[in-house]
Every structure is written in C-alpha cells, then in structure tokens.
Design brief:
This protein has 14 helices and nine strands. By secondary structure, the protein is of the alpha/beta class. It folds into two domains: 3-211, Spore Coat Polysaccharide Biosynthesis Protein SpsA, Chain A; 218-310, no CATH class. Strands 1, 2, 3, 4, 5, 6, 7, 8 and 9 form a nine-stranded mixed β-sheet that branches. Helix 5 (129-138) packs across helix 11. The longest helix is centred in the last third of the chain and has 19 residues, at 268-286.
Length: 311
C-alpha cells in the first residue's frame, strides 16, 4: 500500500528538513514527498547545496505564488498525478513522533467505510499550559471512529479531522471532488462533512502521533478564529444548523479542571482572556459580509485571500 506525503510550505526552516528525514526513516516509507511551496526563494535558500532527490524520484517541489495559495486548491495540486493508495497531508511544523507514524495510520483503515484517518497531536517542549491543555482536549489517548450516527452526540466535532496530519483514501478523495477550492481555512472539516454525508467514517488514530503546537498571541488567536468563522459562513451547507457553542462550553469547563489539576487554578484568568479574543474573532468572522473592507483586513490572517476576491 503506497502513500504519498503532501506538505504545503511557506518560509520553511530547518525543522522541515528534519521532518523530511523522519518521513524517510519510517517503517512504511512514502512513495513520494511533495512540497507545495509558496514563494520559491525561501525554499530554494533552505535546500541549496542539499540533495533531497538522492533516494530516487520521490521528492518533488511545486511552487505557487503567495497570491495563488489557498488551503484547498493548493493541497489538491500536491495530489495531481498520484497513483498511491493513500494521501498523507501534513503541515511543515508537524514532526513525526516516531518511525511508525505512517504504518499506524495505514492500519487505522481497518474497515472499508473508513476513508480518512487523523493523528494525535502532542505539544512541543516549551508549549504553554494553554497549548498543552488544548492538545489533551482535542487529541485524547483513546482512539475513536466517527460517522453520521455521531452527529447528535458530537455535533461539529464529528467533522474534526486536522490536516496537520491526516491520511485519506486517494480513490475516495478523488471521487468526492478532493478539497473544496478557494478556501481561506478549514478545508479539512469541509471535506470531512462530505465524507460523513456520503456514509463514510473518519478514524482518530491516537497511537499515531506528531508534535505540533503553537504559542499564539491573543491577536493571532483572534485572527485565526476570524478566518475560521469566515470559512463557516461561506459554507452554510456544511456548518449551517450545527452550533459550536456547546463545544466551547465543554472546552472552558475542561480547561478549568485541567488548570486546577496542574496546581495553577489562576491560569484560568489569562485563558479566559484568550477565549474572549477567540470568541470576538469568531463572532466578527461569522458576520464578515457586514464589515467594511478596512476592518476585515485588520481582522484576518489572510489578507491575500480577500484581495483576490475583491479584485
């Protein structure tokens, strides 16, 4: 069973080279590693003097301009011409935790209805307490499988399938039209909804893990949630009628218990401030069509997306 690995990159650093090396050391080795790179000069500088095609024709770079990039279409570009059984999408800051990541994700396709598998995300050393909690909340130790039957119980969480490290059955992926194009964010959840609606299931393989975390500032959290909400507002056929509020309440309740267990109950105060920034970004993003362009540009983390649409 062959796997192609596809990684969008932008201004990559040495961590990307370590990820590539770890992928090449897997017990199940990728047939191809494809970098879909935004702005060629940065990757050229990183790879200068290094031969990443030394193992054969299994390393490929596709360059796109910053203006052309979008979260769905750009990832689709990386899958063009693939004949692999599975497509593994990763981000350039998701580090395999061991040499069995690919093998464990493949094994999670143990039933014919499973069309996507996503890995556990562990916090990097030095991650903030908020990030450690977030990873524990969203990526627990127990594996699971989600289907249409879980919609009433899990709500929007049914479609959670992070492309920081997610593997897809290529034939199903192509038959359902791949990721939606022209996405500001959230291409993974939009496609996951498509899978669920067609009767497929999504597996969470907790034994397959990557290190992936960010110590975002409050304004960065605001902008990410603004773009997240814009993507939801643009796709009412996916997110309409499914509330995120109950998930937010569960998140806050679990955070309070986590900080108490860590002996830092007062840490809930800065956490609550961060949640306020996230909520504000989300509310504004949901109503972005009512905002003046100048305000949108102050709120978004993706100004090029809006420039492309406005032009």
């Amino acid at each position: 069973m062959q796997v192609d690995v596809i990684i969008p990159t932008y201004k990559p650093d040495e961590k990307l080279l370590e990820i590539i090396n770890k992928l090449r050391e897997q017990t199940v080795k990728p047939a191809r590693i494809v970098l879909v790179n935004t702005e060629q000069k940065y990757l050229d500088n990183l790879l200068r003097g290094r031969r990443y095609d030394s193992a054969g024709k299994n390393f490929e770079v596709i360059n796109v301009s910053k203006r052309e990039f979008d979260h769905g279409g750009t990832r689709n570009d990386g899958a063009k011409g693939s004949t692999a059984d599975y497509l593994l999408y990763m981000t350039m800051d998701a580090m395999p935790a061991d040499d069995e990541l690919i093998e464990k994700m493949q094994k999670a396709f143990d039933r014919p209805e499973i069309a996507a598998v996503y890995a556990r995300q562990l916090p990097y050393e030095g991650a903030s307490l908020q990030e450690k909690f977030s990873r524990q909340f969203n990526y627990p130790e127990e594996p699971s499988v989600k289907s249409k039957d879980d919609l009433d119980r899990l709500g929007i969480k049914t479609f959670f399938c992070s492309n920081a490290c997610a593997m897809y059955d290529r034939k199903v992926f192509e038959s359902l039209g791949k990721f939606p194009k022209d996405m500001i964010f959230n291409e993974d959840m939009v496609f996951a909804r498509r899978l669920i609606d067609r009767g497929y299931s999504i597996a969470y393989a907790s034994s397959a893990a990557v290190y992936h975390s960010h110590n975002y500032t409050n304004m960065q959290q605001f902008r990410r949630n603004f773009d997240l909400a814009v993507s939801q507002a643009m796709h009412p056929e996916v997110f309409g009628g499914i509330s995120s509020e109950s998930e937010g309440k569960s998140y806050a309740k679990a955070a309070s218990a986590y900080f108490r267990n860590e002996g830092k109950p007062l840490y809930f105060i800065p956490f609550a401030v961060t949640c306020a920034f996230r909520l504000a970004g989300f509310k504004l993003g949901k109503n972005y069509t009512k905002l003046p362009r100048r305000m949108i540009l102050k709120c978004t983390a993706s100004p090029n997306y809006f420039f492309r649409h406005w032009s």
